[in-house]
Specification:
Shape: elongated
Number of helices: 33
Keywords: mRNA capping, mRNA processing, mRNA splicing, Nucleus, RNA-mediated gene silencing
Largest sheet: 2 strands, antiparallel
Oligomer: single chain
Helix content: 55-70%
Subcellular location: Nucleus
Strand content: under 5%
InterPro entries: ARM-type_fold, CBP80, MIF4G-like_typ-1, MIF4G-like_typ-2, MIF4G-like_typ-3
Number of strands: 2
Organism: Drosophila arizonae (Fruit fly)
Strand order of the largest sheet: 1-2
Structural class: mainly alpha
Pfam family, one: MIF4G_like
């Protein structure tokens, strides 16, 4: 702000000037601290715009405003700057330009800024704030471009970071993180380093090459992270891919065209500034290995060059421009995923800023890649689904077609898809279809009908239809799909009360139980009725009671839960051992044999009411009678709900809770491995064993969901892997998993 816009300062002792007529004039109120900082913060946030011309004007406005208030609000301004850089790391060029313009006017501000950023960098690295650390390194790289920081200082910083990659006793994840920190900054500052310190830059790159090509072995850690277990779909390790992109950039003399560089418009002004040196920097150590460094990940690719519109071209996989575009998209999703409309609008603004690129394809590829990412997606599946729906509504002439194209491409690779990604694909696409009246070219997927029973493509269509029915209703979906889909459609989800047949053992007791419940009897009376029936064994009485309760409550979950709650004392009295608890679950699965959703919800309710135990649920899920059901999603949902409830809600002491959770996870692993080994011994077919692949993949998915807890039983898991040597793929999977988490 220039002097003409400043508020006139008047001393409290100085009399107010008088207007004509003798009345004193009012001086404009000086804005307080909060108002000034709110204005500065608002101006800084606006620098994250994708329009270069707009950003240039905003940088000028901000630098003028800050120059007038710098002597009062310097440290608050620096704190706000660090916060904005953490949120918008891909806009570091704009923030560095702002610092550079202020540095031209106030040399001390540039020095204080570098001191603050360095301190915050050390703090972020020490406290495990990895995203913040990366953002600050990117800012320092761009401060070289704005003539605030010397090239020599930046190279010293980068060499200090590479030193960590050469620590022999450091973990692979620690060394990978620091290598990624350096590589990700080079697209921003590489040209400047190349022009002024080429020899030192080459030495730095050779050190990185030695680490990435010789000392690093990502294979065993990334095998489990492949969304597809075939080689047709590119799935490169994130660090190796970035290294290949940097090598291509180096051969192009460090010239790249995707980054926003607003400082180029102020080059004449910035070149007059005095530069600064960084204070000494030493990456912090974590001697107790307490820092949880980022895990490796694989970069997802779906579309090929011939999938894009003819007049548009996307930078190829080894072009650093691809990395930069994807980083912009991921930043937007990370910041705005809770506000889907704002997020969609921001993504479309980025599309407008890149008119020659097929940005819509890239956005869908990034969203689906994150959603299917292993071992888990950064956000909930519903976040990605809601955003994709919003994009389809915002640009209906482009996004729906691209989403359909992507879904078809994923469909063709289902045979090789990891079960965890498979489940997320089912959940996302069923939700997506439900928002567009389930309109789809179902005829295109009719080939799934003739495939083997447990083939992933056939399983996908079956699970997708069941999820669609859960979001709609049975008859609606039956009428929508072609008649040829009949073999994949589940039966009508109606209850099956077997004691309608009066000749069955227990039918007489069932009639008395139904009459008693309908007459609103007390739980004690019903318990007495069951105890008085001495001619039936306890298992049959439990079956009669459970079937009767579920039959009378079949109208809704509210009815079922009300009856279970009322007669909870009777159910608890009968559920005094594992066999009786299994009998209750068996009765549930008999009544609702055609409704997986009810089986899942009611079994979870019985667990939470402490009628059945968590170990009883595990025993029932792996019961031989459910072998064909074990490939289905709902049983593994039930297992995950059981583990989660044990971990977070069991009313026991903390120590006992931890012990019980460890025992439960170990029980699941042991039982599942035993079931797989028994299956392998009984099935000697030379054909692909899809059933075995499903159960093995689902076990891995569950173990990934509870990595921190599984670490406590890792030694036991190694013993299990050793005992499973006969099933080589199973043993290798467990060992690879243990190597990944440790």
């Amino acid at each position: 702000m220039n002097s003409r816009r400043r508020c006139r300062e008047v001393s409290p002792e100085e009399p107010l000037p008088a207007e004509a007529g003798g009345r004193p004039t009012k001086c404009a109120r000086r804005p307080d601290h909060k108002e000034v900082m709110a204005t500065i913060e608002n101006l800084m946030i606006k620098l994250s715009d994708y329009n270069s011309a707009t950003v240039q004007g905003r940088i000028e406005d901000l630098s003028y405003y800050v120059t007038d208030t710098l002597h009062i609000y310097k440290w608050d301004i620096l704190r706000t700057l660090v916060d904005c850089v953490e949120k918008y790391p891909m806009q570091c060029g704009a923030y560095a330009t702002f610092v550079g313009l202020v540095n031209v006017q106030d040399y001390e501000f540039g020095s204080e800024c570098l001191k603050c950023v360095t301190q915050q960098l050390v703090k972020a690295l020490y406290e495990g704030e990895w995203l913040k650390a990366q953002s600050l390194v990117l800012l320092l790289a761009d401060l070289v471009n704005t003539n605030v920081l010397t090239v020599g200082s930046m190279l010293q910083l980068l060499n200090s970071l590479v030193d960590v990659c050469e620590e022999e006793d450091a973990s692979h994840r620690r060394r990978d993180f620091y290598a990624h920190l350096v590589l990700s900054s080079l697209p921003l500052v590489g040209r400047e380093l190349y022009e002024k310190k080429e020899t030192v830059l080459q030495t730095l790159l050779k050190r990185l090459q030695v680490y990435i090509k010789r000392e690093r072995s990502p294979g065993e850690g990334t095998r489990l992270l492949r969304i597809f277990n075939n080689c047709d779909v590119p799935q490169l390790d994130y660090l190796e891919l970035l290294w290949l992109q940097i090598k291509r950039l180096m051969h192009a003399k460090w010239i790249e065209k995707e980054l926003l560089r607003p400082y180029a418009a102020f080059d004449e002004n910035l070149s007059t500034a005095l530069q600064h040196h960084l204070p000494p920097f030493q990456p912090p150590c974590h001697e107790d290995d307490s820092a949880d460094y980022p895990h490796p990940w694989l970069v997802f690719r779906l579309f090929e060059a011939n999938d894009f519109p003819p007049h548009m071209r996307m930078p190829d996989e080894l072009d650093i421009g691809r990395h930069i575009i994807e980083a912009h998209i991921m930043e937007t999703v990370r910041l705005h995923h809770l506000e889907r409309k704002i997020c969609a609008e921001r993504l479309m603004a980025y599309c407008v800023a890149k008119p020659t690129r097929p940005m819509e394809h890239c956005i869908i590829e990034v969203l689906l890649g994150q959603m299917l990412q292993l071992p888990s997606s950064p956000l909930l599946t519903i976040n990605y689904g809601a955003l994709i729906i919003e994009l389809c509504k915002l640009v209906p002439d482009k996004f729906p077609r691209i989403v359909a194209q992507a879904a078809d491409m994923l469909y063709t690779q289902l045979e090789y898809m990891n079960p965890s990604s498979f489940d997320r694909f089912v959940n996302w696409f069923s939700h997506h279809l439900s928002n567009f009246r389930y309109q789809w070219n179902w005829q295109d997927w009719e080939n799934s009908i003739t495939l083997p029973e447990f083939h992933p493509t056939r399983q996908f269509v079956r699970e997708l239809l069941k999820k669609c029915m859960r979001l709609s209703y049975h008859q609606h979906i039956v009428q929508l799909v072609p008649a040829s889909y009949a073999p994949l459609l589940p039966a009508s989800p109606d209850p099956n009360f077997k004691y309608i047949d009066g000749l069955l053992p227990g039918a007489k007791l069932a009639k008395h139980v139904l009459d008693a419940i309908r007459s609103k009897c007390a739980p004690e009376l019903l318990g007495g009725l069951l105890e008085a029936t001495t001619e039936l064994d306890e298992g049959l009485k439990i079956n009669v009671l459970m079937q009767s309760l579920l039959h009378l409550g079949c109208k809704s979950f509210t009815h079922i839960f009300s009856l279970l709650s009322k007669f909870q004392p009777v159910l608890k009295m009968l559920a005094h051992n594992d066999a009786n608890q299994l009998a209750m679950l068996r009765a549930l699965f008999e009544v609702w044999s055609n409704n997986e959703h009810v089986k899942l919800v009611v079994a979870d309710k019985l667990l939470k009411m402490h009628i059945v135990s968590n170990h009883a649920v595990v025993a029932w899920v792996f019961n031989p009678s459910l072998k064909s059901e074990l490939v289905k999603m709902y049983l593994w949902e039930l297992l995950n709900l059981t583990v989660r409830y044990t971990k977070y809600h069991m009313r026991i002491t903390e120590d006992n809770q931890s012990t019980d959770l460890n025992c439960l996870l170990l029980n699941i692993a042991q039982t599942c491995v035993k079931v797989l080994m028994d299956h392998r011994k009984s099935e000697q077919s030379s054909e692909v064993d899809y059933w075995f692949q499903w159960i093995q993949g689902r076990l891995l998915q569950l173990l990934f969901n509870y990595i921190d807890d599984v670490r406590k039983i890792s030694s036991k898991l190694r013993e299990i892997a050793f005992e499973a040597e006969e099933a080589k793929s199973l043993s290798n999977m467990i060992n690879d998993y243990l190597n990944y988490i440790t």
